Amino acid sequence: MSLPPSASRDPLSTADAPPTADTTALDEAVREALAITRRGCAELLVESDWIAKLRRSAANGKPLRIKLGLDPTAPDIHLGHTVVLNKLRQLQDLGHTVIFLIGDFTSRIGDPSGRNTTRPPLTIEQIRDNAQTYYAQASLVLDPARTEIRYNSEWSEPLGADGMIRLASRYTLARLLEREDFTQRFRANVPIAMHELLYPLMQGYDSVALHSDLELGGTDQKFNLLVGRDLQKEYGQEPQCILTMPLLEGLDGVDKMSKSKGNYIGIQEAPQSMYAKLLSISDTLMWRYYELLSFQPLQAIERLRAEVESGRNPKDAKVLLARELVTRFHSAQAADAAQADFELRARGGVPQEIPEVRLSLPEGGLALPAALKQALLVPSTAEALRMIAQHGVRIDGGVVEDRGLRLQAGTYVLQVGKRKFARVHLS
């Protein structure tokens, strides 16, 4: 975000007398905090307000309250979710209070952001089940000892009908319809349910209840975050600043990372799977992942990028990134094992740990396509036949071309593609 024309090029400069040693130290701390805040972000609003909050916090030693709200609409967190979690951890490491807000109340409404249809609300049971794993997974990024966990049902449920009416009176329908997705649906005569209009208000009220100084979210959350800022003014509070983070592209480099699109990396995926997926991304997408997911200093990333541009193999940079992320979510030992497993597979070898499957042997032997399906290496016999035709199936390391092959009693290592293995015992 650019500064207004009237501002100095240095956002921390003032027109006051020359700074003392104390103010110089304070400004240096604020400058560092501002650089950390800006790193990888899409937008910081309002930057001058955030600088004022940082200066006040540095002067009085009182931590700022930084909020991230997530609705537990699914049980698992993927790397795309960690973009905002990483930023939260960086601000947490500066000494500020991080509030991890679980939207157990707002999940019942369903966030309409980016939707062109009404989102079906979740049941209380679904929300409870998903919430059980959310914080455990987020704790792989955040420091649990310094994280405040809250549920927005704490203050949303006690509002009741009277409180909800009073809250609704503080915002206008015209303002809500300024939201892009609401506007598009309204113009296209696509139904907008009344409860959907409540979602931005309830998310905004969370900021009032928590006295938030800064709220984080993806770029698709900008409108909701601004509602929180407006409502805080209505309730006589100092308005929060908002920090939006880019939406991370999935493995395809096109669509937003999403489990439904199959282009995601779950943070609880097996180390070997996480490592292999990260090695599969394009050379261009790799730098996007470095910017949004790596904790390496920006200077170190730029040096690495310059080395790659000067001829160093891009795979070296992917290996470093994959090792960093596998170590973060598993361990250094897991990263070593994942790297060794990947290199072994690349040489055509068989990993040490593969599924063991025992199958019954019918009279006359078991047809290979049926064996592949029963070993869960393919979803169907038709897919098995297709893979055999494409020379994508191996038995004990040798490529199979006979679609009519029948396996007899014994033990076989079956392989489909580069990554799917099973040791099959037929008897």
Description:
The chain is of the alpha/beta class. The protein has 3 domains: 21-245, 3-Layer(aba) Sandwich (Rossmann fold); 271-346, Tyrosyl-Transfer RNA Synthetase (Orthogonal Bundle); 356-426, Roll (Structural Genomics Hypothetical 15.5 Kd Protein In mrcA-pckA Intergenic Region, Chain A). It contains 17 helices and 13 strands. The strands form 3 sheets. A 6-stranded mixed beta sheet has the order 1-6-5-2-3-4, with helices on both faces. Strands 7-13-12-9-10 form a 5-stranded mixed beta sheet. A hairpin with a 2-residue loop joins strand 9 and strand 10. Helix 1 (21-38) packs across helix 2 (47-60), helix 9 packs across helix 10 and helix 12 runs parallel beside helix 14. The longest helix has 18 residues, at 21-38. The radius of gyration is 26 Å and the shape is globular. The N and C termini lie far apart (68 Å). Residues 1-9 and 114-119 have low confidence and may be disordered.
Q: What's the tally of helices? A: 17
* CATH architectural label of the largest domain: 3-Layer(aba) Sandwich
Classify the secondary structure makeup into a structural class.
alpha/beta
**What number of structural domains do the residues give?**
3
CATH superfamily label of the largest domain: HUPs
Overall pLDDT level: 86
Q: Low-confidence segments, ≥5 residues, pLDDT <50?
A: 1-9, 114-119
Strand content: 5-15%
CATH topology of the largest domain: Rossmann fold
Radius of gyration: 26 Å
Approximately how much helix is present in the residues? 40-55%
| Biggest β-sheet description | 6 strands, mixed
